[in-house]
Amino acid sequence: MGAINAPWYPPATAVSKATTAITVLPCHAAALRNALGDKVFLFGLFCSKRITADILKYVCHKERCHFDEISNIDFRAGSWPGSLQFETVKRTVLIGSSKTYWAAIYNSYFYVPSGCLFCNDYFCDKADISFGDPWMKSYSHGSRGDSVIIVRSKRGEELFKRAIYENILEVQDISEEDVISGHINGIYNKRAGVNIRRKIFMKSKIPVPKFSDAETLYANPAGILFEFFYVLNNYLTRKIGLFYFIPRIPRQLMFVYRFSHAMLLKYYLKIIRFEKKAL
C-alpha cells in the first residue's frame, strides 16, 4: 500500500532559515530544489500518490462514526505493513491495509489531488536520500518491517556511511531488480502510465505538465484502459463532486471494482514485460 501522504506545504523562506534537513514527498522535493537548491538536505519518501481528508470522511461513513469526533489517527498502526487506526469519542476503528475496502478506496484515486495524476517521480529523485517500503517478502522482516534506501548525493552518502559506522542503521545490499519487482505498479503508474493520462487530459484541452522523454518510459497505447480507471475515478470526485454518491457504494462492490483492476494490470505488465523495460 505504501506510505500514507497527507497535505503539507512548507514555506520555502521559513525552511531556508530554520531547517537544515526535512522529510518530503517528490513534489515537495522538486519545489524546494527549485527554490533553495542545495541549501536544504532532503530525505525523500517513495510516493505513489497523496490522499485528501475526504478519504477519512468516506471511511467514517462506512464505519458509522463522525469525522469531527476523530481524536487520533495512525495510518500504519501495528505490525508491518500496518493498519488504519483512528479513535473517536465512542470507539476505536481498525482496518487492515491489505485486501480491504480501505485499501481499495485508497488505491482507486477517488480521494487524491488531480496533480498526482501528472507526477512522474515515484522514488523522490531530487532528495539526498530517499526511502520507502520494500514490498518484497524476502525483505520484510519483523513487526516493524525494513526500508529500501537510495542514496542520491555525496552528502547523502556521507551521512549514510556515518549512520552505519555508528550502528544507527543495519543494512544489506538489495539488487535493482528486486527494488523494481517490489514497486513495479508504482513505477508503471508514475513513469509510463502518466504519459497516457497526460494525453487523455490534453485531448480535453486541459493544461498538463511537460516532461522530457528521459523522465518517462514508453507506455503501450493499450494501457489506456487502465489509465481511464484512475482518471475517471478522480474526475468523479474532484470535478463533478460526487462525494455524496461514492460513500454509498457497497464495500464489497468497491473491493471488487478496485482489485479486479489491480489483477488485470498485474497480468498486463507481465504480458508487455514491463519489468525488463524499467531496468
Commentary on this structure:
The chain is of the alpha/beta class and 279 residues long. Helix content is 41%, strand content 12%. The strands form two sheets. The chain has a four-stranded mixed sheet. The longest helix is centred in the last third of the chain and has 21 residues. It starts with 11 loop residues before the first helix and ends with a helix. About 3% of the residues have low confidence.
Portion of residues in helices? 40-55%
Strand content: 5-15%
User: Which whole number gives the mean pLDDT?
Assistant: 85
Going across the biggest sheet, name each strand in turn: 1-2-6-7
Radius of gyration: 19 Å
The low-pLDDT segments are 11-18
Terminal Cα span: 22 Å
**Helix and strand element order:** HEHEHEEEHEEHHHHHHH
The helix/strand class is alpha/beta
Query: Given the C-alpha coordinates, what overall shape results?
Result: globular
Number of strands: 7
Q: Which descriptors would you attach to this protein?
A:
alpha/beta; 279 residues; globular
Task: Briefly say what this structure is.
The chain has 279 residues and is an alpha/beta fold.
Task: Compile the SSE list and pairings.
Blueprint: H1 12-18, E1 21-24, H2 26-36, E2 41-45, H3 54-63, E3 72-77, E4 83-87, E5 92-96, H4 101-106, E6 129-132, E7 148-151, H5 154-165, H6 176-182, H7 184-191, H8 193-203, H9 224-238, H10 251-271, H11 274-278
Parallel strand pairs: 1-2, 2-6
Antiparallel strand pairs: 3-4, 4-5, 6-7
Helix pairs in contact: 8-9
